[in-house]
Amino acid sequence: MKIATFNINGIKARLPRLVEWLEETQPDIACLQELKSSDETMPTKEIEAAGYGFLYHGQKGFNGVAILARGAQPVETQRGLAGEDEDEQSRYLEADVHGVRVASIYLPNGNPQPGPKFDYKLRWMARLRERAKVLLASEIPTILTGDYNVIPHDDDVWDPRGGMANDALMQPESRDAWFRLLGDGWTDALRSRHPAGGVWTFWDYQAGGWQRDHGFRIDHLLLSPALADRLEGAGVDKDHRGREKASDHAPTWAKLS
Q1: What HEC string does 88-152 produce?
Q2: Model-level pTM greater than 0.90?
């Protein structure tokens, strides 16, 4: 079973690239983030024509998450996170599909920091951890996938002492929240297969980030113990980042027995 996560950066703008990637790599489950589309304007027919069931939580112009399943329809188990009833941002979607509980996550960026956006990011991470604890306690085989907007290690960024040093993605508070989540019992699939780092999932459109390979790793797949025991491999479909009108993220995946 191949499970992938892909920040598509606008599902309608990248639809040809998305369908192309689905056809070429055929993940069994694909989690998308940053759809930037309302539910009413989601390209459902095109996704279904590619052979995928399509569950989505949209938001006009911003955010948005989805779960796609090859030859099946994901069964929704939760939409959004508890803890802030006034939070209307579409950033979390959870479903059962192919015998696995899957969450598609678009964690807040948090910039500029310090400030209210960074405070929201940290609160959101705490809320995610509470939901993750419930999932671990249930012992359901679970994978938490998505754009976490956290660079966990210095070797997860091309230049840790450069322009990213003051970014919300690398702050001690962000990393502390990340490692508290992992410490509860989750396995970082990509890191477990590439422990030396140097594997990027994002390259900025600005300043020739892609051409110079100035990237970093913020797209993650976290496995519950039951799935960590089944992990066979993990990687990044890097070549898809270099295609015409591509997202600034590359699809990232884990393969399970």
Answers
A1: CCCCEEEEEECCEEEEEEECCCCCCCCCHHHHHHHHHHHHHHHHHHHHHHHCCCEEEEEECCCCC
A2: yes
